[in-house]
Design the sequence.
């Protein structure tokens, strides 16, 4: 296998995955360290002004072993130790694997442009003198040494071929192997990683790896970069809209893209403002026997957009999402307070009206439908996507006003009967009826018969909506066969909560979740749908005054991702 194609994956593994915190360095580490007394006086350990993040990995080999055992398959052909991975991607002598201490912590840092950052990674050498002898001073050494402040830079004797990916490597005078992307990264980050970070006490906690993002990086690097990316995205979408109008000589079929972008612009900008108003962010990465988890803790400033966002979060457990059928390809639940629900309703009706533009002759029915939905809503709702035939959407939510819930869905059906929705969706007619759904109640069903396009041969599938609203709960389904989707969801005897791989996720988020997303990517691929359930779970919420974002990925899904990355 060519290790060059693995440089991105392996570097990410080295930077982001580690093991349990080391309780202390062994005697061998202390004996092998080269004293700093011999280092030049001008070697300083100051954090770079453009620092983006700092990395601490406690016991690399412990976690790498867990990953290889848990994921198995293609990962088993990789080196058995994390130092071995460093050696492989850095194109070093294979003998060096035994000279790197995989029980000692790994340190790293990112700096510069978030889209193309400089980085440096340091791993402890068992014996710096012996490593130098293997790499530089031996008769068969592949490198020559170039002295620099506090380190010896290893210069390959063999000239790299065109297009070959290489890394810059150095041995520091205090016993670290330093790997970086570019020569200038060794100089700008080397001293900070091997002297500044290593002199600190280990970060508190029990996570396998810790990534700390400071205030300066959030406010002056990440937030501006996100704003620039969003500005470019808006420009691209606007240009695409103009090109399509010119090519087709008419407005788009389904709304005005420019108006749609303008409608979501405020939401995106608010979230970017939250990033810029954070005091700090800490990303904790852990690896268990059957999954990997990433949890970001976001600490807001005392005042500002981030603090306001955290303060107004409505939180609870993951029950709304996990009560959905286990067959759900995607499940989403959200909690919102009264003011947020009202604002969402106004924003939604305004966005629909803006997107339709001149096509919409009367906005009142849209406002009435959204107003009824807002009056019916309580704190939470849950939505599932069923991908198996018949595919469709399933919605369940506690309600406080049965009449308003019925008006909201009745208004949705009425909109399909009139332009511009009738024309856009090519609705020929609407049939209404009702049917008893075991376990749910008597459902109202509306079927939209659709016409074929003049230049299309096949007639599109009919679609529709079915719903049941009692005095406490609303259940509804949308899709080609909404009544079937509703019945399948109502009678499902297995829920997402029954998946064992989600138990740790549920315990970790507790009562602090505002938004929960569970997705089963393997269900979208017919060739992999038979594989064991592998749901990835995401939660956004708060603990005290801090927000958190947690992602849990089970080993079976990681196994498939590794196979895809390796081309298997």
Sequence:
């Amino acid at each position: 296998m060519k290790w060059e194609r693995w440089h991105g994956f392996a570097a990410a593994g080295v930077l982001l995955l580690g093991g349990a915190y080391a309780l202390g360095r062994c005697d061998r580490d202390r004996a092998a360290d080269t004293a700093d007394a011999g280092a030049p006086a001008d070697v300083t350990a100051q954090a770079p002004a453009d620092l983006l993040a700092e990395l601490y990995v406690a016991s690399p080999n412990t976690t790498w072993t867990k990953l290889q055992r848990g994921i198995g398959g293609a990962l088993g052909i990789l080196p058995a130790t994390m130092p071995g991975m460093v050696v492989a991607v850095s194109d070093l002598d294979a003998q060096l694997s035994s000279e790197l201490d995989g029980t000692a912590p790994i340190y790293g840092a990112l700096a510069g442009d978030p889209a193309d950052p400089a980085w440096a990674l340091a791993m402890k050498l068992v014996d710096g003198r012996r490593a130098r002898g293997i790499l530089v001073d031996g008769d068969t050494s592949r490198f020559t040494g170039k002295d620099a402040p506090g380190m010896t830079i290893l210069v390959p004797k063999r000239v790299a071929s065109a297009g070959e990916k290489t890394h810059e490597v150095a041995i520091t005078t205090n016993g670290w192997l330093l790997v970086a992307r570019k020569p200038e990264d060794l100089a700008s980050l080397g001293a900070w990683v091997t002297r500044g970070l290593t002199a600190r006490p280990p970060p508190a906690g029990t996570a396998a790896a810790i990534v700390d993002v400071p205030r300066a990086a959030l406010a002056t690097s990440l937030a501006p970069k996100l704003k620039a990316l969003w500005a470019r995205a808006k420009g691209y979408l606007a240009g695409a809209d103009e090109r399509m109008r010119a090519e087709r000589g008419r407005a788009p079929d389904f709304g005005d893209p420019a108006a749609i972008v303008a409608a979501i612009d405020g939401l995106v900008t608010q979230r970017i403002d939250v990033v810029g108003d954070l005091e700090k962010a800490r990303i904790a990465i852990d690896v268990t026997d059957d999954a990997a988890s990433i949890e970001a803790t976001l600490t807001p400033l005392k005042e500002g957009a981030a603090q306001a966002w955290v303060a107004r979060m409505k939180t609870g457990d993951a029950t709304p999402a996990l009560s959905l059928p286990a067959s759900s390809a995607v499940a989403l639940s959200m909690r919102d307070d009264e003011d947020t629900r009202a604002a969402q309703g106004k924003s939604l009706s305004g966005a629909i009206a803006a997107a339709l533009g001149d096509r919409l002759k009367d906005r009142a029915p849209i406002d009435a439908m959204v107003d009824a939905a807002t009056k019916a809503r309580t704190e939470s709702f849950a939505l599932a996507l069923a991908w198996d035939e018949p595919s469709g959407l399933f919605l369940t939510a506690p309600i406080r006003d049965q009449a308003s819930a019925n008006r909201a869905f009745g208004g949705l059906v009425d909109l399909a009967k009139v332009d511009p929705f009738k024309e856009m969706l090519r609705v020929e007619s609407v049939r209404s009826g009702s049917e008893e759904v075991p376990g749910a109640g008597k459902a109202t069903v509306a079927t939209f018969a659709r016409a074929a396009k003049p230049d299309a041969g096949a007639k599109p599938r009919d679609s529709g909506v079915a719903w049941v609203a009692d005095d406490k709960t609303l259940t509804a389904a949308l899709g080609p066969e909404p009544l079937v989707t509703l019945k399948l969801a109502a009678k499902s005897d297995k829920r997402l909560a029954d998946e064992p791989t989600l138990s740790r996720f549920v315990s970790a988020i507790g009562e602090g979740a505002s938004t929960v997303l569970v997705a089963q990517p393997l269900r979208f691929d017919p060739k992999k749908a038979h594989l064991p359930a592998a749901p990835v779970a995401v939660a956004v919420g708060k603990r005290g005054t801090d927000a958190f974002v947690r992602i849990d990925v089970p080993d079976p899904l990681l196994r498939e991702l590794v196979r895809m990355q390796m081309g298997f």
Summary: The longest strand covers residues 427-437. The chain has a mean pLDDT of 85.
